[in-house]
Batch of 2 targets.
Target 1
Amino acid sequence: MRRKLIAANWKMNGSRTANAAWLASFDGSRAPCDVVVCAPFVYLPQVLAGLRAAEAGAQNLSAEAPGAHTGEVAGEMLLDLGVRWVIVGHSERRMLYGESSQVVAAKAARALALGLRPIVCVGETLAEREAGRTLEVIGAQLEAVLARCAPAQLLAGALAYEPVWAIGTGRTASPVQAQEVHAAIRAQVAHADAAAASQLRLLYGGSMKPANAAELLAQPDVDGGLIGGASLQAAEFAAICGAAG
Ligand code: PGA
């Protein structure tokens, strides 16, 4: 039985005042699932101090060891703060910041080597879906990760399927579409390690909100969610966590 995991991705949002209100309002002990809150680097100390019954996560890390990489943040630094989770390979990193599948895989491997729990994201664009290439694209993204990270290692974290066309658009994958891709991802991981694949948590992300969460989370291979826009309001995020019972 895979315990559900709901992760907030605040993206580049927040302020000390807004975060304080969020943290005062959200209590993870009411959630029937594991909860992770991924905040911008600079707010991680505030989130770590204020979170109740939930864990903090970063949204990125460097693939490199500490040293001459101006503007980057090393996994060692996240651990030093007490952060245990990190999103890796979000589509905004891939598309806006040029992270290739090889870079994403290197970051995932680095996170795992350090003892961080990566939430590794994969997903197709609308053009790729419309061209019937969804499973091919996701298969290639996943293959790069599996070339560097054993499935049993990935169990420390999770994989997230985030169709690019559903992120922040209000357009959600249907439960059937999500389940189809999640099942394909699990089958691909099972090819390398069937036992690990059956335990690996696969999150769905892309306009998940209180109104559609229960239906998506009821799919047999959907083990949680990665929530962007709807995580910015604590009450909405709590409602999604509540749907993961
Ligand atoms: P969204 O974002 O929930 O706003 O679609 C999800 C994500 O990008 O992680």
Note: The CA atoms of residues 117 and 175 lie 26 Å apart.
Target 2
Amino acid sequence: MGIDLGSAALVAPLVERAPTITTLCSHSSLQIFHGARTEGFRSLGVCTGAPPRFYDAFPLGRPDQFLSVPTIPEIRSHTDELNRATALLVPHGSFVEYLGADAFQKLPVPVFGNRAVIGWEADREKERVWLESAGVRMPERYASASEVDGPVIVKYYGAKGGKGFFLAKNRKALEGFKPTGPHVIQEYVLGTRYYVHFFYSPISDRGYRVGRGSLELLGMDRRDEANIDEHYKLGAQEQLLNAGIRPTFVVTGNVPVVLRESLLPQVFDVGARIVERSIELFGGMVGPFCVEGIMTEDLVFKVFEISTRIVAGTNLFVSGSSYSDLVRPDLSMGRRIALEVKEARAAGRLREVVS
Ligand code: ATP
């Protein structure tokens, strides 16, 4: 048997009655609700105010019921209602962001996956310790501007979408740079970005074995990032700045990508290392996660960030991707979550995937 994440008391109601797959009405909720419906679960959407109208346009992605709260943090006073509905919360980026990582971790409602991972992802320092000790290649980090020996990206903590990130071609270009808050100076990696959508199942005994379970690759995307992605049209950053435009990396959309097949072993190795180390550090990451990295011209994949839950880039693949089609037809990440819950419940192993 594997590692129990959730207590018997927390999980017991979901053993007696089928869970209601629950998430915040945003981000990747359509495919989460669609996946729940496909696997025969009821679903519940948490929203503020009236249920969002856009669900009317997507009947297969509409939750069966809504819970309206005045503000997202006020979910904390509705936990009895959620538990009465046997809610199983599925974290996504907006859900964790709007509620706060700390509050999310403390909610007395069952959560899909290991809620301990939220604390490791929310803290950039802890995330770096995790990835580096797993042997994952990351961009260099410079303790001060005087150490810089190439192009750098200056990142502010909690920048959200890379707002205010500063790029410098070299040490000279960094002279006179006045940081406006806590930040890190990181090697600017030249290459091509890939956002790799993995799913780790601790209960599967098929496929690419990692730990006691298996690692699946379900898709890959690249983010469209305004206004930096268009910046080549205007020329170099100086020209952007001269035009009074601060480059940002605010995500506006996603495009599907595939990796050269010969590079798949490398990204699987990165995914496996991240999972194996997570098992040692905090009992393991369960379910969806995204490895965000840059493939250099030397074909080295340098990871600048991981997201330890479903990412919005998976919205591209509601009916499958070039990768998930080779795992199972019509497999979205949302459906994969529901499937994991269904299989864990049938095998009496819910505590390994719910915390
Ligand atoms: P979010 O939380 O929205 O994912 P963030 O504020 O955590 O963003 P990152 O994800 O670290 O910021 O970076 C945002 C973008 O900046 C990346 O998607 C990528 O385009 C670019 N970027 C980040 N780190 C590097 C790097 N070391 N070299 C080159 N580009 C980078």
Note: The longest helix spans residues 264-282.
